[in-house]
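Structural prep section.
Before we set up the soaks we want a predicted structure of the protein with adenosine-5'-diphosphate in place, mainly to decide which crystallisation condition to try first. Input record follows.
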Amino acid sequence: MTTALPDIERALRLLHLSGVRDTLETRVLQAQGTQQPFLETFALILQDELDRRHSRLIERRYQQSGLEEKLTLTEFDWSFNPRLPRQACFQLHTLKFIAEGSNALIIGKPGTGKSHVAKAIAYQAVLQGYKVQYLETDDFFNRYVLSPPAQRETRLRAILDGDLLVLDDLFLSRTIPDDAGALLQMLIHQRYKLRRSVVVTSNRVVQDWGAYLGDNTMSTTILDRLMHHCHLLEFDGRSYRLKEAAETLARKTKES
Ligand SMILES: Nc1ncnc2c1ncn2[C@@H]1O[C@H](COP(=O)(O)OP(=O)(O)O)[C@@H](O)[C@H]1O
Ligand SMILES: [Mg+2]
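Run finished without errors. Recording the tokens verbatim:
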């Protein structure tokens, strides 16, 4: 066996079986030590390759998602704002809404955890192998309107193709670039036709969207599609950001 190892390693490299390559020596030792039947060893080796490919796929999905942190609901403190729709958040976290092709609209006060929950759901979707696009909406709009047509098209394709699109902090700034309203309408309309899920978070109540878009008809069209199959979550409560800022300030005052 030992003499054949370099040949096997070369073959594994040629066949791009890096998962097998990484664990082969261990599996050989394991089999020798326990007189494991060949098929059992072979099955373990194949599983090593499958595991490696799966974790690579998940890592790739994460890199492509636009998420910059791996947030989960584990670190979320539900006692801080007891009125948050906890059950509805966990319901979304099951990701059934993606399979159904329905949407979620998370509206409420700043700092109450809307983005945190949306990112945690998006990350859970990545872990389950879904194609996710997370966008900080303002930043996306600004970059999009400045980018050349070819780049716009590639970007749009990824956004329309994904299983889940997260538009975080929609209308954070009260004004959006000229073409952004039409872009938003097109995105929501296309994904609606394809029954692909969208999660939107916003500090702005839907009644005001027309004003931010500068077009009430467009706002109605967007909301009509978005809310047809939709989970509505309202986040009411205190700002966790302010709590953190107050704690930092208190610490600094104590230190000085
Ligand atoms: N209940 C909570 N438990 C733990 N961290 C929280 C909670 N609510 C908010 N945060 C944290 O506070 C910060 C602001 O929350 P964020 O989700 O951005 O609020 P929003 O999007 O509603 O304005 C983030 O760092 C987030 O992780
Ligand atoms: Mg937010």
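Observations: The longest helix spans residues 38-65.
Flagged for discussion at group meeting.
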